[in-house]
Amino acid sequence: MKLAHYLSNIEGVSIYPIISLLIFVIFFVIVTLRVFRMSDQSVKHIERLPLDDE
Questions:
Q1: Coil, helix or strand at residue 9
Q2: H/E element holding 42?
Q3: φ and ψ of 14, to 5 deg
Q4: How far is it, in rounded angstroms, from Cα 41 to Cα 38?
């Protein structure tokens, strides 16, 4: 049997794709806002991390 057959028997299953999309969009917006609000000093520090010997 296919997965779609099992999912069609579950009541209210159509809400799960909507919830997962909302979670993704909220996460993406939070990450984007956080990146744009970073200070230049923080960005420079993060840029140097792969090159530092410490």
A1: coil
A2: helix 40-48
A3: -70, -15
A4: 8
Would you kindly state where each structural domain of the chain is located, as residue ranges?
15-51
Question: Which residue, chain included where needed, has tokens 């840029």?
Answer: 47
14-29 per-position pLDDT tens digit: 888 899 999 999 999 9
d(CA 52, CA 54): 6
Alpha-carbon torsion, ordered 43, 46, 48, 53, to 10 deg: 160
Q: Which two tokens stand for residue 38?
A: 């970073």
Tokens of 11: 């009541």
Whether the predicted model's global pTM rises above the 0.90 cut = no
